[in-house]
Amino acid sequence: MMKKSLLGALALGLATSTSAFAQTELQWWHAMTGANNDVVNRLAEEFNNSQKDYKVVVSYKGQYADTLNAGIAAFRAGNAPHILQVFEVGTATMMGAKGAIKPVHEMMKEAGEKFDPQSYLPAISGYYSTAKGEMLSFPFNSSSMVMWINKDELKKAGIAEIPKTWPQVFEAGKKLKAAGHETCGFSNAWAPWANIEQFSAWHNIPMATKANGLDGFDTEMKFNSPAHVKHLQNLVDLQKDKTYDYSGRDSRSEGRFTSGECAIFLTSSGFYGNVKANAKFDWANAPMPYYPDIQGAPQNSIIGGASLWVMGGKKADEYKGVAKFFAFLSDTDRQARLHQESGYLPITKAAYEKTKASGFYEKNPALQTALIELTNKEPTENSRGLRFGNMVQIRDVVSEEIEAALAGQKPAKDALDSAVNRSNQILRQFERTVR
Amino acid sequence: MEKRAHFSGWTLPLLLIVPQMAITIIFFYWPASQAIWQSFLREDAFGLSSEFVGFENYVHLFEQPEYYRAMVTTAIFSSLVAFFSLACSLLLATQADKNLRGGQAYKTLLIWPYAVAPAIAGVLWIFMFHPTLGTLSKPIKAIGIDWNPMLNGNHAMTLLVLSATWKQISYNFLFFLAGLQAIPKSVIEAAAIDGAGPLRRFWTVIFPLLSPTTFFLLVVNIVYVFFDTFGIIDAVTGGGPAGTTTTLVYKVYADGRLGGDLGGSAAQSVILMIIVIALTAIQFRYVERKVQY
Q: Which of A169, A187, A316, B26 is surrounded by the most beta carbons within 10 Å?
């Protein structure tokens, strides 16, 4: 109770102070730390200096899940920020909350701000758009999954070329193991993201019906297909002698690559800064491997990262400010610079073209790999993106079942069947709450 | 002599108990009743829509095999942690109770872990036992154990029990030490004169006299493992691998906060509340009979 009235008083204080300065404050809650936090602060500062009517105020709210929960709690208390950074798996949750959000395309139109959905990279904006192509949230930091390579170790193991397909990776893993990498031939972080989500898109296989949920919340999981089972079974077989070694559900074990333990490691392209700073060997990254016997592979990868959601129930003038800020973020020069400095993917086509034309990628090929993957082919309904309610929970369920298979508790097929069944239950629960 | 205060009216006594009542109502009854109410609702995370669904959340819960597994996990985890933390701290306390040189420093050091936040304790243990980076996992591997808490559920559980126990030892130690010091030296000396050896003195004199402390700690420790170990679990295993370390309280968090299923999560906390109330009641009803005050 006391907290509420205190917040009320604070809000009142804020309201009066803004009117005194005749400047509208726009709250931006985010989850960025370290160098990425500096990027957020600098963007806000640049925007605030570029005009006088609006002031973007940034607050760090903890990790992605914490930030989302802080946003939800604030909304329930009537104090939602204007802009909330939400990770990609929270997309369906935000979308389902119709009264709580303001779709970006609608806001841009009402504010009369220049906005062309076509100018954004479809592989990125598609993830945050409706089936009709209406952009719901504004892509901010995007990455994709790539394969990181320790070139020194590959050379030592007698592997001449960076493997392109899964069978080649398995072979390379065996050679690496024979060459002394006894605990890890190859591995990956983000188990469900790598082995189910990206795997499905990259091989153009549906992860679920209804275009992976983009066409409706009545989607049903399908990731127990023969191809999925085969891939997991391969990993299970290789786990036995640690040619493949499991590295967990999140990015905590990424250090296995930079420490030199795992010479082939699949994880986010956002790992770039860390590798650059910590890897004391000759490294590179390459597109994710694929199975050549699966038709159409490789297709295109999907993104990870986060987008900016505009919360509902704010004043028209405030939305004008947010629209201005998004237009500011979309500026080609700014996007190109942001991409080159931070390693985030550029969100507009123009920024990508500009960076390409400047010859930047010749010197920094590692920053282009994710973009090559994302734009490899025109996205299909299997590779446009994912939209599952309660996806955080679904990822946990999928991780649990993958772990059970890798630990030898059940066959790959049973594990994926069970993961599909349990995920479907979660999807049905979610469907009922948004109806 | 009767210890009874006499008040002339109702005003003062009422005023005096108001703070206590307010705290109990605001911090216990109110949230508890909210949880009960919420467990009958199906609600989206934003609270935009809510629907009364009766006992559906409960029915759904008892249909999940994972929920029963979480119960078993909790039972194993809590008995292991309660047993080891009580046993270790009792051992430490009896040793610290002797006249040792630098005993004070020794006692102080033993109390330190209690000041460490659960999440930090968890992270410390991860660093020591991480399958590849951990300093202690190398010797474990050297003796031929394929240590891998990231895939092996038993290893993960061992790690959790270790860290949760370590965290609780200081607290128990403190109480045991106080309990030991309250035992009159004359009783022990009398036993010694009668020819009882140290072990016999411990089991026939000290341990029974310590039983009120042990009982109190048992209750507190059970409550501790049920609720407070959540931070350690979140930091060390995140409920994995394959759900082998998901306890009831961790599942409440995972389903409610991470999953956004508030109704189901509320139903779980209501059940958890009932379990803990029942456990405490049983302890007071049956175990307390054996306690000698």
A: A187
pTM for the whole thing?
0.80
CATH fold group of domain B50-290: MetI-like fold (1.10.3720)
CATH number of the domain that A289 lies in?
3.40.190.10
The closest CB to that of A396, out of B60, B150, B254, belongs to B254
Please report how many Cα atoms fall inside a 13 Å half-sphere around the Cα of residue B218, on the Cβ side. Answer: 18
Structure tokens at B144: 């031929």
- Beta-carbon separation of B42 and A433 below 8 A: yes
Q: Is the pLDDT reported for residue B105 higher than 90?
A: no
Domain boundary among A332, A365, A398: A365
Does A178 share its domain with A245? yes
Task: Please indicate, yes or no, if residue A124 is contained in any of the structural domains.
Answer: yes
At residue A18, does pLDDT exceed 50? no
Write out the residue range of the structural domain in which residue A110 sits.
Answer: 18-143+303-365
Per residue in A57-110, pLDDT tens?
Answer: 999 998 888 899 899 989 988 899 999 999 988 888 888 888 899 999 999 999
- Residue A292 belongs to some domain of the structure: yes
Average pLDDT for chain A: 89
Q: Which residues contact A305 (CB under 8 A, 6 or more apart)?
A: A87, A88, A139, A140, A141, A142, A143, A270, A344, A345
Do both A220 and A349 map to the same domain? Answer: no
Instruction: Write out pLDDT tens, residues A323-355.
Output: 999 999 999 998 888 888 777 899 899 999 999
Residue A379 lies in a domain: no
Q: What is the DSSP string of B76-103?
A: HHHHHHHHHHHHHHHHHHHHHTS--TTH
Query: Which residues of B sit within 8 Å Cβ distance of A?
Result: 26, 42-49, 60, 66, 131-133, 150-153, 238-243, 254-255, 257-261, 264
Count up the domains in chain A and report the number.
Answer: 2
Cα–Cα nearest to A391, from A65, A11, A80? A65
Question: So what's the pLDDT on residue A401?
Answer: 93
Record: contact A96-B44, CB cut-off 8 A: yes
Residues whose CB is less than 8 angstroms from the CB of residue B267 and which lie 6 or more positions away in sequence, other chains included:
B39, B57, B58, B61
Give the pLDDT confidence score for residue A2 in this predicted structure: 43
Residue A370 lies in a domain: no
Tell me which of A230-239, A335-344, B23-32 is least confident. Answer: A335-344
Q: What's the gap in Å between the CA of B275 and the closest CA on chain A? A: 25
CB-closest option in A76, A390, A399 to B47: A76
Chain position carrying tokens 């914490």? A66
